[in-house]
Amino acid sequence: MSSAPPPSLPLDLNLLRTFLAVYRSGSFTGAARLLGLSQPTVTTQMRALERQSGRELFERLPRGVAPTPVADGLAARIAGPLDELAGVAGPHAPEGARAEPVHLAGPAEFLCSAVLPALAPLVAEGVRLRVATGLTDQLLDELRAGRHDLVIATTRPRGRTLHAVPLSDEEFVLAAAPVWAGPLRDRLLAEGPAALRSVPLITYAEDLPIARRYWRHVFGRRLSWTAAVTVPDLRGVLAAVVAGAGFSVLPRYLCADALESGALVELFAPEDPPINTGFLVQRPGVPDNPDVARVHDLLLRAGRSW
Prior knowledge:
By secondary structure, the chain is α/β, with parallel strands linked by helices. The protein has helices spanning 13-25, 28-35, 39-53, 69-89, 108-124, 136-144, 178-191, 209-219, 234-242, 252-261, 290-303; strands at 58-60, 65-67, 102-106, 129-133, 150-153, 163-176, 202-203, 229-230, 247-251, 265-266, 275-282.
């Protein structure tokens, strides 16, 4: 049995556009926000499309909807043509009109340290930004629902509802202030990570996500220590470590200046340091706002040097 409606079945183009918005956002509410419609209108349109096609397209869940195999097949058939049509016939701002702000989201530290400085030339040219911060999973859900135009994610999103391209790689560094580093570096070479047991660990979160990854990748061991200080902002972790509170694992882009000045010392230099790839994520299709593409392209160019 085919997973999509019969080719000869006439389907309303507006219903197909609404279907694609629901498919990509994962909810009727998110699709309504993307399309500028009311949620009841989207619900009514999807019921109409299901009646026309004679197939169930979405499984209704307590939060959002899940596409059926029929919906997967229909989306695969219509997404390309509808996106091309939107690119040709989409709304165009009148000459001299100001484009809408670009809604950009990602990790606070990376946005403030790397992204916003890179986007300064576009802001000077008149591009407007609305920046939000948060954790990747939450931001990707909000992107699907239409709250953001672009998200910088620390992991590649799953599924086909979002389009992600690699943006930059961040290398992780085991570091401490000079007051700790002198005796520790030699002990690390001789004793391994056990040499750090007596030193306070400063981390981003209670479950030690970055430090655990470093331990597993570099030392081949599980890290089960308790943090002395947790700060849900890596800039705070950096400040505490520079002040001599203890040691931490930090992304190199964030602590490069402190390492160069001597305020921080890299405690161990593995041949194969752990690296995490960040992704620039957006919803598929052609954005209505041309400034979204400008921000997207500039970030990809800047990402090559981060």
